[in-house]
Design a protein that fits this description.
By secondary structure, the protein is α+β, with helices and mostly antiparallel strands. The protein folds into two domains: 119 residues, 2-Layer Sandwich (Chitobiase, domain 2), CATH 3.30.379; 161 residues, Protein Transport Mog1p, Chain A (3-Layer(aba) Sandwich). It is built from seven helices and 15 strands. Strands 7, 8, 9, 10, 11, 12, 13 and 14 form an eight-stranded antiparallel β-sheet that branches. A five-stranded mixed β-sheet has the order 2-1-3-5-4.
Length: 328
């Protein structure tokens, strides 16, 4: 009898595990445009203060872009419509007036990869409180999922050129549409054509003691970018070249990239002496093992075009940096 009970229990456990694995294995692939967010909530909530707060958090302006764009493109869906293929959206925010009070983020519920932020409350005030509490985590989760998805798409067809490895001892997962346009001592420029313009990645290094004064950090970044632009990034005519836009200082954030500490600057570039401009993002990496500051930058030139998703692509590429000389 003991052996029979053990066999039955093992059978039940095996069936349960197999059923769980099948459910995980057969989750459909998630869908949705880059940086899109589906918001599921009753229309009366959407049109009132709860909807306003959702837009305040999830449609806030993305930093360093002109014209201004929200961090997510939001689509509102009433709960009765949320079924079937609609549930396969990659990023979902679900809000509901309910007897429960909660706010959390769930993973791969209807599809994979997928993040669903669920916010419930017994009143509007409670929903707002829970929404405020979970918003930062939800935004970070949505953005991480977008980043992971983009980097996975890159790996389907990668650029095989070795300029970055030869010059700086690094690799980036760069889509094959990008090509090396310039390779000089301590400078590599890689770009791809887009409608009405180009997406660009540049890399160079600075002495290890650079940016040692916190009080002049932003000014030093601007000075560095302007000197590199003058030397390597010409404008359309003689004596024109890329500089940091003079009207606004870049936004600055602490960063960790490729396992190393650094800083991230976001702002606008312009052409000195010519009416051209666009957004940039610059990672300054403290590469102690190589006794240098490694600079990786992405910038877009796309006149009269919204550039949020272009800059997201460049950021996703830069964040794939890997060191080829076994640095830890």
């Amino acid at each position: 009898m003991k052996k029979l009970c053990v066999l039955i229990c093992m059978g039940v456990l095996a069936f349960s595990c197999n059923e769980k694995n099948q459910k995980e294995r057969f989750l459909p692939s998630s869908t949705g445009a880059v940086n899109s967010l589906m918001v599921v909530m009753d229309s009366d909530l959407w049109q009132g203060e709860v909807g306003d707060r959702v837009r305040e958090h999830f449609a806030q302006p993305a930093l360093g872009l002109s014209p201004i764009q929200p961090i997510f493109t939001i689509t509102h869906v009433p709960p009765p419509v949320f079924s079937g293929a609609v549930t396969h959206s990659r990023s979902i925010l679900f809000l509901e007036k309910d007897s429960l009070s909660l706010g959390h983020v769930k993973t791969d519920v209807y599809a994979s990869p997928q993040k669903i932020a669920v916010v419930k409350g017994t009143s509007n005030a409670e929903i707002l409180s829970n929404l405020d509490a979970v918003a930062s985590n939800a935004i970070a989760s949505f953005q991480a999922t977008e980043l992971e998805g983009a980097q996975k798409r890159f790996r389907r067809s990668l650029n095989q050129e070795t300029a970055l490895k030869e010059e700086f001892g690094i690799n980036l997962d760069i889509p094959s549409a990008y090509k090396v346009g310039k390779h000089e001592d301590n400078f590599v420029w890689i770009d791809r054509q887009i409608p009405k313009g180009t997406l660009n990645i540049i890399a160079y290094s600075m002495p290890s003691e650079s940016f040692s004064n916190d009080s002049t950090f932003v000014a030093d970044i601007v000075k560095m970018r302007d000197s590199i632009g003058k030397k390597y990034v010409p404008g359309p005519y003689e004596d024109t070249y890329m500089v940091t836009e003079k009207a606004f200082s870049p936004y600055l954030f602490p960063a960790e990239i490729g396992g190393k500490k650094g800083a991230l600057a976001k702002g606008m570039w312009e052409i000195n002496g010519y009416p051209m401009a666009g957004p940039f993002l610059t990672y300054i990496i403290n590469d102690k093992a190589s006794n240098r500051k490694l600079v990786l930058e992405g910038f877009a030139f796309a006149p009269s075009t919204v550039k949020r998703d272009y800059m997201f692509e460049l950021d996703a590429i830069l964040q794939t940096v890997k060191w080829t000389n076994n640095q830890e």
